[in-house]
Design goal:
Radius of gyration: 19 Å
Number of helices: 6
Largest sheet: 2 strands, antiparallel
Strand order of the largest sheet: 1-2
Shape: elongated
Mean pLDDT: 84
Low-confidence stretches: none
Helix content: 25-40%
Length: about 150
């Protein structure tokens, strides 16, 4: 789409930008986390009872996806059904496959991140002794769960 020229410069609007995001500020959050290790400490508060052969998203990845989502203003868990396609969020989480094209299950390809149903199991994790859950919560959030 062409617009009126601005001096000698042409002004052209194009809509083929590919993957675009407005969440680039999350890169600053990732830099801070890499220095202070908050997400690693928070992920250490959970124990994973899932079948290791069936896991595509580590507990650390799930925690990171949820925390970055909240920090970027996506407070509702169902937002992640769309965010699971987001390459920038995948970069923040630390995924190597930013487009999800190499996912194991064909139905998940194109989605590098977890869906809301998987994140829901993390959010509803129970402490030990509260019954069998796939992901269990170890200690109160105030504690440094590494020791």
């Amino acid at each position: 789409m062409e617009f009126q020229s601005r001096g000698r410069r042409e002004v052209i609007g194009r809509f083929d930008g590919g993957r675009i995001t407005s969440d680039g500020g999350g890169l600053l959050l990732r830099e801070v986390d890499q220095r202070i290790g908050l997400l690693d400490r928070l992920a250490a508060c959970f124990t994973d009872h899932r079948n290791p052969e069936s896991i595509e998203h580590s507990v650390r990845d799930l925690v990171a996806q949820r925390v970055y989502g909240l920090a970027l203003g996506y407070e509702d868990l169902n937002d992640h059904d769309d965010l699971r396609k987001d390459s920038t969020l995948a970069l923040l989480v630390g995924k190597r496959d930013l487009t999800g094209e190499r996912r194991v299950r064909e139905q998940d390809r194109g989605n590098p991140l977890a869906a809301s149903s998987t994140l829901n199991r993390l959010e509803h994790a129970q402490p030990p002794g509260a019954g069998h859950t796939e992901i269990g919560y170890i200690r109160p959030l105030q504690a440094d769960c590494r020791g």
